[in-house]
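Predict the holo structure. Ligand: histidyl-adenosine monophosphate.
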Amino acid sequence: MAKPARVRTIAPPRGSIVTKALSAIRSVKGTRDLLPSETPLWQRVEEEARRVFDAYNFREIRTPVLERTDLFARSVGADTDIVTKEMYTFQDRDEESLTLRPEATASVVRAYIEHRLFNEGGVHKLYYLGPMFRRERPQKGRYRQFYQIGAEVLGSDHPTIDAEVLEMLTFLLARLGLREFSLLINSVGCGKCRPTYVEVLREALQGVKSQLCADCQRRAETNPLRVLDCKVEADQAQIARLPRIVDYLCADCRKHFDGVEAELAQRGVAYEINPRLVRGLDYYTRTTFEITSSGLGAQNALLGGGRYDGLSEMLGGPSSPGFGFAIGQDRLMLAVEHAGNLKGENSIAAYVAWLGDGAFRPAAELARGLRQQGWRVEIGYEPVKLSKSLSVANKLHARYAIIIGEGELASGRYQIKDMGTGRQEEVEPARVPAYLKEKLGTGPV
Ligand code: HAM
């Protein structure tokens, strides 16, 4: 029987009508709260991603978190770990089987087909951000609700697309201050050449199957490619000796892979070929890739993706090749923090410290004016001593404290204290926004 979860109790406040202590409800295993101390850096990373996507002319798409279960069985693959073990699937009240999305590529392609975006012709470049759900064993960098930042290009199988997206990704990682990462690429062939390779692999596996883990023994029969994706340490030596898919590519797939390599070289994007990189989802054709980052521990795959030229047809749409990736944002945040080159904004521009009842109205008016211009400003709600106000300003990481007391009201000039240096200057109320702009070097937030 499963061990009962540890229960913490919180006593009700004194005088509360609740007389019995209630057990505190905690978040679900593998999910977590992102607190205000963390969200500024998350927002900063998301802003950078949006900026880079925008520069490469990607547009945002938002698809539902809830999808029909069939969508993932048909795209991600009925024999993958995601579909067999990790999906949050439930029967809706009308008996329909629904699933919390474990990934978003299938949803994007579904939307592309459902809204006939292909009729517009040309290439569609789409991006998304949001939560995904997989019931995996939680550990550092691995959660049951995790976040992805992803992009998909639909409508062309040209190798330039693959190279351009990889260039964009390395540009984004550089903007986030990340330097220690490796891009691993491979080609998994197409419907023409892969079956031949799969047969060669199946045969090779017959000889070594008994030395592999139970899952691989099963996969050797049902889906031999999945063996290459096995994470069991003891299996790795045998897996390294298996035939390599790159040696079995047909002429078209070889040409495509050569094209991607040439374009990457031309763009100065560094990469390594990893012939075992088949990825954990079945929809891939031709290019597959991952970026790993040191300093992430066991879960070192920062992002992954590839080409999926048959996915649209697998989902009942027209022939429409695609290429894309998803960054694991939780892991990206660990890498960004580890690199330490990017900071989230957690300071405020000014704290309005007022003294004496008569100062409240002008202080509130100043705060309102600054806020409505977009400055991040806080003001005390109760009369307190100046020392207390300044200590609150400090706690809030205020860059300036604007002091308004009887003396300031009489002279018509407010004191503005630089919270970093302690230096103080007198400024007329109307000039405060210009003063902040001059000192902070930026406009309102
Ligand atoms: P994926 O490799 O399954 O690919 O996931 C992409 C990334 O999401 C991983 O590299 C990892 O960083 C992150 N990730 C996956 N599972 C977890 C987890 N349980 N906790 C934290 N992070 C996780 C896909 O999802 C494909 N849809 C990518 C793609 C887009 N291929 C083509 N287009």
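Confidence is low (pLDDT under 50) at residues 1-5. Residues 103, 105, 134, 136, 141-143, 146, 148, 150, 152, 280-281, 301-306, 324-326, 328, 330-331 surround histidyl-adenosine monophosphate (CB under 6 Å).
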